[in-house]
Amino acid sequence: MENFRLRVFRAVADEMSFRKAAELLHLSQPAVSQQIRALEEEAGVRLFDRGAGEGHGTQIALTEAGRVLLRYAKKAAATMDEARHALAALQSGVTGDLHLGASTTVAQYVLPRILGAFLRQYPQVELSLISGNTEHIVEAVAEEKIALGIIEGPAMRREVKTERMTQDEMVLIVNPNHPWAKAGAISPGELASAPMLLRERGSGSRRVVERALKQAGLPLRSLRVAMDLDSTEAIVSGVEAELGVGFVSRFAIGKARRLGTVRVVRVKGLEIVRDFSFVWLAGTETHGAAAAFQRFAQDNHADK
After folding, report:
1. Rounded to whole angstroms, how far apart are CA atoms 139 and 143?
2. Are 5 and 39 in contact (CB under 8 A)?
3. What family does the entry list (predicted)?
4. Are residues 177 and 252 in the same domain?
5. Which terminus, N or C, of the chain has the lesser number of Cβ atoms within 10 Å?
């Protein structure tokens, strides 16, 4: 669907070679040169400083006008690609409402990129999204308030079915001023000495952390639980404010690590991994927009 001359122009600009562009497009080199000359005549400007570049010698270079056109040509190609996906979506019949739920960490740190790409490919879908802890999302699925959920921990109800989407790792974060920040690694027993910030009861994150610590010989009662907080972001903020230490998803700390406001500390012998999982009503299969989203998310986020 892309304008053919612009496609040829992009190929020459990307390869910086008429010969290589011709090979890429399965055209003769004279045909490529002819398309570029026609485009220059249409635009009224030179797009390339050729030198001997149309033959087998010197490399070519974009003129200033060529660089400007290349930016717009890339935008045009991306737009036409989106249009192609949108038309394919219409033909596939992926339309209608998508009632989706996601637990807090997934909704805030994982879904935005996936949803943006999905809605560009399927613009006829009308999305509604709720977020809450894992228990809340599982309950919404069981009560048929949403067609599909994505949760951070195990689903504790028989009325629902789950399937793995991707894997996550929970890591211990501390303030850069904390003594553990310089150590880089601690023993599990040392966790009992620091104020611990945890997610609220019913959270999949809390459930996974509790289970892993118990298996390491650290039941919750042995820790100094300073606060129960209702979001991962609140734990990160609490660590930044030196209120304690906490376990959070690695997905959640990219910005804080870039800013240097938290440090990740390894706990020797302790690895906390969990699945982010799709959840839907047992005894049924997802269909329509929900099934399309499930496939799309699986393809576009599996262990990325």
Report:
1. 6
2. yes
3. Belongs to the LysR transcriptional regulatory family.
4. yes
5. C
The label of the residue with tokens 């030196």 reads 242
Cα–Cα distance, 285 to 177 (Å, whole number): 50
Tell me how far apart the alpha carbons of residues 245 and 213 are, in angstroms, rounded to a whole number: 14
CATH classification of the domain holding 28 = 1.10.10.10
Task: Specify which residues 198 forms β-bridges with.
Answer: 228
C-alpha 65: how far from its chain's center? 35
pLDDT single digits (tens) 182-220: 998 999 999 999 999 999 988 888 999 999 999 999 998
Residue 86: pLDDT band (50, 70, 90) is low
Do both 199 and 267 map to the same domain? Answer: yes
How many C-beta atoms lie closer than 10 Å to residue 244's C-beta?
A: 21
- As given in the structure block, the two tokens for residue 134 are 């894992």
**DSSP bridge pairs for 151:** 277
Rounded Cα–Cα distance for residues 123 and 134 (Å): 28
First to last CA, the chain: 31
The reported pLDDT for the residue numbered 131 is 94
Shared domain for 69 and 194, answered yes or no, is no
How many domains, the chain? 3
pTM greater than 0.70 (yes/no): no
Q: Which of 72, 91, 110 is the last residue of a domain?
A: 91
CATH of the domain at 113: 3.40.190.10
Pairing of the two strands 272-281 and 148-151: antiparallel
| Residue 89 in tokens | 């979506």
